[in-house]
What we know:
Oligomer: single chain
Strand order of the largest sheet: 1-3-4-6-5
Structural class: alpha+beta
Number of strands: 6
Amino acid sequence: MQTQTAGHHEDLPQRSLASRILLVVFCFFFAAVFVGLGIWQVERRAWKLALIERVDARVHAPAAAPPGPAEWAGVSDERDEYRHVTFSGHFLNDDETQVYAATVYGAGYWVITPLEEADGTIILVNRGFVPTEKRAPSTRGAGELDGEVTVTGLLRMSEPKGTLLRSNHPEDERWYSRDVAAIAAARGLDPARVAPYFVDADDKPNPAGGPIGGLTQISFHNSHLVYAITWFGMALMAAGAGFYTLRWGRRGRREP
């Protein structure tokens, strides 16, 4: 019995040492993972700041012609979103679409009207916001512009997904996103002539007080610095736990 008991006690330090080694490896592994996540957030922050700088430069640049048909294939969010553009043509008022919107003016609709340029190119224009009681074009006759017009605004990319995961229902004229391809198809427009983007008109006043343009919201969520600090803090905690375990293990081995 004494021999078995002695052997049992000899196993305990070995098991304890193995457990400490495993815990130390575990701590330093997660410290490395957290450091990697922190570095990734720092890189994301640099990318986001560069994006904000590029967008700000586009918004405040002099208005230029939007990309033409020869450039449509290369249009992208990173290169073209929020470009300051200007172009002329006449509105196809009979093909107007109203898309649900929530703005500083309350709930209502974006008025999306195709504009046809002299060469036949069609660009969907978000002319601005109207309240629910002004949704029907007949309630804002003076705002339905005829003849040659010039539109200045910001280029926006198509929104293929509905707002808050709500899908568009063209058959019921219920629109929740500014999906260029879907709107063009619903209005029977030639897809080869329709630009793959739309344009938010600026705040130039429209007759009869609407639609109200210039409501483009330009904001970028940028909490990457907070996330980076959080990850680095967790890495420090994990590393500290690992060093404490090492020190405690060494002290334990020195004790009789």
